Amino acid sequence: MLLWMDPVRRPGPEAMAVDEWLLETVGTPVLRVYRWAGEWASLGYFGEIAAARAAFPGVNLVRRWTGGGMVDHRADWTYTIVAPHGEPLAGWRGAESYRRIHTALAECLVAGGVDARVSSGAEETGAALCFENPVHHDLLGADGRKLAGAGQRRSRLGLLHQGSVAAACVEEALSIQRAEDFAGRISDQWRRVPLLPDPDDLARRVAARYADHKWTNRR
């Protein structure tokens, strides 16, 4: 597995374009950890734009390529896992991959002093706001509230898993420590690398999908 601590703070459409670029180009699993430029919330592929606007008035919105609910990214720790087709991680069934990834994340958070446990699904509320609706295999904190969730997309190219943790790491060193521990719990072999997406490629993806009015307001 490759660990990429993306050093660039990106607006929502570009952040999503990078994940799409990873899914289409990498030949080995990648854990990407990144930050947002500006105030952003995201909604899942099937989410209702009107509900997102009501939930996050005045906040920039971007629609993800993955499922899941609405997520506030103004104070979270955001990561993406991409696993190309043929890799063991991409071969896990949906619920199994979600469980394994979140079990590793829970262990990582506990090791870093954050109380976390995997939800049995009994706490599910049906709310559209992701962090008000802990579903099976989401992570819960000490107070029983949702601490981490994710959305997935599977295609012939592999697995795209986009996750968010409400326990942000303000200091970069702590974020790196969490990311490295997380990578080590997902994969026995990992290394940290810099990746350089082509700006022109990203701009094309942004214009074609994530910044397009039709895409954002499709539902």
Summarize the structure.
The protein has one domain (2-216): 2-Layer Sandwich (BirA Bifunctional Protein, domain 2), CATH 3.30.930. It is 34% helix and 23% strand.
Structure description:
By secondary structure, the chain is of the alpha/beta class. The chain has one domain (2-216): BirA Bifunctional Protein, domain 2. It has seven helices and eleven strands. It has helices at residues 12-25, 49-55, 88-91, 94-111, 172-186, 199-210, 213-216; strands at residues 2-5, 30-34, 40-43, 60-63, 71-72, 77-84, 117-118, 139-140, 146-155, 158-165, 191-192. The strands form two sheets. An eight-stranded mixed β-sheet has the order 7-8-9-10-6-2-1-11, sandwiched between helices. It has a three-stranded mixed β-sheet with strand order 4-3-5, sandwiched between helices. Strand 1 (2-5), helix 1 (12-25) and strand 2 form a beta-alpha-beta unit. It is globular and about 40 Å long. The relative contact order is 0.21. The mean pLDDT is 91.
Topology readout:
Elements lengths: L1 E4 L6 H14 L4 E5 L5 E4 L5 H7 L4 E4 L7 E2 L4 E8 L3 H4 L2 H18 L5 E2 L20 E2 L5 E10 L2 E8 L6 H15 L4 E2 L6 H12 L2 H4 L3
Parallel strand pairs: 1-2, 1-11, 3-4
Antiparallel strand pairs: 2-6, 3-5, 6-10, 7-8, 8-9, 9-10
Do you know the CATH topology?
BirA Bifunctional Protein, domain 2
Number of domains: 1
Output the number of helix runs.
7
**How would you characterize the largest beta sheet?**
8 strands, mixed
Radius of gyration: 16 Å
Strand order of the largest sheet: 7-8-9-10-6-2-1-11
- SSE string: EHEEHEEEHHEEEEHEHH
CATH architecture: 2-Layer Sandwich
Shape: globular
What is the residue-mean pLDDT, rounded to a whole number? 91
Q: Helicity range of the residues?
A: 25-40%
Query: What is the CATH C level class, in words?
Result: Alpha Beta
Which range does the strand content fall in?
Answer: 15-25%
Structural class: alpha/beta
Low-confidence segments: none
- Count of strand segments: 11
What is the terminal separation in angstroms? Answer: 35 Å
